[in-house]
Design goal:
Pfam families: FGase. By secondary structure, this protein is an alpha/beta fold. The protein has five helices and nine strands. It has a single domain, classed as Aminopeptidase (3-Layer(aba) Sandwich), CATH 3.40.630.40. Strand 4 and strand 5 (about 90-95) form a beta hairpin.
Length: about 230
């Protein structure tokens, strides 16, 4: 299994990333969970891959999508992060990860995924990187309602982030500014491949009940295409 799926595109101004695109678990890995949980937000960013594909098609730009579930290894975490290989997620134990070979799983999935991103960014030097995610309206355990339709996550580089927040709010969307969680704390992929390379970037978190069907995916792909054009201008 390759760690990343690359969608080619001739429009090189924008690169799309989707770290939590897949719920796939390799056949030789037993997470010890109810298979139904692989359709849950703990395993995959629901709707994010579909939005990424639709947006890439609209823009004609490249996209890189992860091919393994975040329950196997979270590609949007630093290699030393405590949640890289989760033992529990939103209250659900992941017993198969209790005695995992951490270094082996990093070498198999995390390192090659980030090599693909590194090499693509070096070769393309996009003007803008957009990372597409989704979030659940309410966590199952100890969560409160998350009213935002879309969140804008970023760390120190605000060149794309602040105009993105303004764009969404001007278009009437209930927008989280570093909500439902802060990009100052969880922004591993963009910190490394965008901010670390001096490339403007932003992570877009769409509430997943808005992109669970084709109509929602098409609507948000259109919104994000308009956003990308706005940012490039």
């Amino acid at each position: 299994m390759s760690a990343a799926e690359i969608l080619e595109g001739s429009a090189r101004g924008v690169l799309l990333l989707c770290d939590h695109a897949s719920s796939a678990v390799p056949a030789d890995i037993d997470l010890g969970i109810d298979p139904a949980l692989l359709d849950n937000h703990i395993a995959i960013d629901i709707g994010a891959a579909a939005v990424t594909r639709a947006l890439a098609a609209r823009l004609g730009c490249p996209a890189i999508l992860a091919t393994v579930s975040r329950l196997v290894i979270d590609l949007h975490r630093e290699p030393d992060h405590i949640g890289l290989i989760p033992h529990r997620s939103d209250g659900h134990p992941i017993p198969g990860n209790e005695t995992v070979d951490r270094a082996g799983r990093i070498a198999r999935f995390h390192a090659p995924y980030h090599r693909v991103l590194r090499d693509h960014v070096r070769a393309q030097r996009p003007r803008l990187i957009l990372s597409i995610h989704s979030f659940t309206p309410c966590l199952e355990h100890g969560g409160t309602d998350r009213p935002w339709q879309v969140g804008v996550l970023y760390n120190r580089d605000v060149r794309a982030a602040h105009p993105t927040v303004a764009f969404f709010r001007e278009h009437g969307f209930v927008t989280g500014d570093n909500e439902p969680y802060s990009g100052r704390l969880l922004n591993a992929t963009l910190n490394r491949h965008a901010e670390g390379q001096g490339i403007p970037s932003v992570a877009i978190e769409i509430r997943n009940d808005l992109i669970r069907d084709d109509a929602g995916v098409a609507e948000w792909a259109a919104v994000l295409a308009a956003l990308a054009g706005h940012l490039l201008r």
